[in-house]
Amino acid sequence: MQDEEETVMDSSDTPENDAEPEAFELTPENELERKLTEHKEKTDDLTDRLQRLQAEFENYKKRMNKRIDDIRGVAGESILLKLLEVYDNVERALEVDFEENPEAAEEGVAAIRKQLGKLFTHEGVRPIECDGKQFDPYYQHAVQKVHNPDKPDGVVLEEYQKGYMLKNKVLRPALVCVNRHKIDEEDSSDNNDDSKNDDTGE
User: Fold this and answer.
1) Which residue among 17, 26, 131, 153 has the highest number of C-beta atoms inside a 10 angstrom radius?
2) Residue 116 and residue 124: Cα distance in Å, rounded?
C-alpha cells in the first residue's frame, strides 16, 4: 500500500504536470483578425447611428412639410377673403348703369383698382419697371425685336404686358419689345412673317 502511495506521488511529480501553461503567441493573422473585428464593430455602430439619423431626418421633413402645407392653407384663405371683398365691390359696380351715370361707374372701377393695388402691395407684389430699361431676360421676356438706330441697343421700347415681382422673386416676367442694332436673320424673318400675317389678316 505504501508502495502505491509513493507511486502516485511519483506520478504527480512527472515533468508533464510541472510544465507551465503554454503561452499564447499573437501571430500577425490574429492581429489582423482583431483589427477587422474592431472595424466591423465601428462600422456597425456608425451604420446604426446613420440609420437613426436618417429616420429622424425623414420625420423632420414630414413635420416641416405639414407645417408648410398648414401655413399655405392659412395664407391662401387670408388672400381669398381679401379677394372676396374686391369681388363684392365688382358686383356693386356692375349694378351701376354705365350709360346713365358713366362717372359713377368709372369711379367704382377706379376704387376697385386701388383696392387691388393695396392688396398686392400688402402681399409683397410690385410691378417690374421696364420702359426704357436695359433688357434683362430674368425680368422680361422679349416677344419682339425691332431695329431703331436712334435708340440704345438692348433697351425695352415697349411693354405689352406688365411683369410683377413677389418680394424678391419674379412672379411673372414682363412681355416686351426690345431694340436691337443688329438683328439675327432668323429674328428678322420671324418679324417679317408677323408683319405679313398682320397685313393679310392671317
Assistant:
1) 153
2) 12
Q: Give CA separation, 170 vs 131, 141, 173, in Å.
A: 17, 12, 6
Q: Are 89 and 108 in contact (CB under 8 A)?
A: yes
What is the per-residue pLDDT across 133-186, written as a single tens digit (0 to 9) for each?
999 999 999 999 999 999 999 999 999 999 999 988 999 999 999 999 886 655
Query: Which pLDDT score, from 0 to 100, does residue 198 have?
Result: 43
As a three-state string, the secondary structure of 182-194 is CCCHHHHHHHHHH
Work out the number of other CB atoms within 10 angstroms of the CB of residue 136. 14
Cell of 116: 387691388
Write down the residue that cell numbers 420702359 correspond to. 131
pTM: 0.55
Can you give the pLDDT at residue 26? Answer: 57
Rounded distance, CA 197 to CA 143, Å? 16
Three-state secondary structure call for residue 148: coil
- Rounded CA-CA distance 86/80 in Å is 10
What separation, in Å, do the N-terminal and C-terminal C-alpha atoms of the chain show?
A: 136
**Residue among 175, 153, 150 at smallest CA distance from 163:** 175
